[in-house]
Amino acid sequence: MDAGRWPDVVRLPPAGPVRTAVAEHLVGRALKGLGLIASGAGGPSTAGAAPLMTVHDPDAFHRRIGRHGLIGFGESYMAGEWDSDDLAGVLTVLAGHADELVPAPLRRLRGLWVSARPAADRNTRTGARDNVRRHYDLSNELFAAFLDPTLSYSSAVFDGFPARAEALEAAQHRKIDRLLDLARVGEGTRLLEIGTGWGELALRAAARGARVTTLTLSAEQADLARERIAAAGLSDRVEVRLRDYRDAEGRHDAVISVEMIEAVGTDYWPSYFTALRGALAPGARVVLQAITMGHRQMLRTAATHTWISKYVFPGGVIPSRRAIAEHSAAAGLRTVADHGYGEHYAETLRLWRERFTANRPAVAALGFDPVFQRMWEFYLAYSEAGFRSRYLDVRQLVLVEATRPAVSAP
Prior knowledge:
By secondary structure, the chain is α/β, with parallel strands linked by helices. It has two domains: 106 residues, no CATH class; 282 residues, Vaccinia Virus protein VP39 (Rossmann fold, 3-Layer(aba) Sandwich). The protein contains 17 helices and ten strands. The strands form two sheets. The chain has a seven-stranded mixed beta sheet, sandwiched between helices. It has a three-stranded mixed beta sheet with strand order 1-2-3. Helix 3 crosses helix 17 and helix 8 packs across helix 9. The longest helix is centred in the N-terminal third of the chain and has 21 residues.
């Protein structure tokens, strides 16, 4: 392992015998209580219906959890100190009982093993660019190794479960078309997209006859999106701007933002919704696709440095539906449609994870080492577990100016 790149994975935290002993007790209690099968962690390993979790180095495993909680749990997986024959299954069981893993009296001491989010991760204009670069600018080829040909990095909408791998592209188009329909995008629509991705939504909107301005902070995404738009012969209808959402210009007939709010950060949700409201022409609509979690869980997570915020999405915070409603209302918007697709995201992530695993040699050839590969596998399985356990959801919402009369959404 590269100690320069992965210092907290290579280096075991100080022993802390009391904390380690407490972690060993709590982990053993949780695994036994949830029916998870574990070897090397307080019990024998036997095959059965429950997912199998194998701890190769119990001392390191418990030391990491004792010192850093769930961050340590993820770092232990990255270090190869534990494995599972069904990683998403293990994490789904744990996610489904997240609020019960620590006894109630000890939850009041949560501050002893969790840390606050680093100030450097705040999504100021400079911070947002840095945070985007650390995830989305890793490599277009990396994302192509597990996404479908549309390069859509958000939940698909399927027509049945379990979904086949070859159905993912169609499911992504179904999702995009539904968003465009909700926004009433058609011939001549002036559409603002906040969060370009690799350009698939802009392409499909332009094919309907819309004129699209799409904003991103990712240089890698912007370059490839422009290439794809040019190859489709739609450059005259789509402008890709490397620009912060706070600097959006003009009034538009529709605004669409797909799984972008999660990267905004709680401090900047007022700015985000103000920008959405300010971009609307009279009678226009905002359509969002947003990952959500319960409000109480959101408040706790927003104040905590998590494994996801440390290794995958620096500065990211998943909102609650209540937070979206409150911040959008404060900006002069109200919700007129709200549909959930949590099980669809679980399927999307399952297919991404299967593709990533199958394409590991290609990922390694791109220069991503085994620690990164285990990190990415854990991230995809961790996310899938959140949706399978219903700890997380994904919503498609339609927002309009609060002063407009109620309308029915398709």
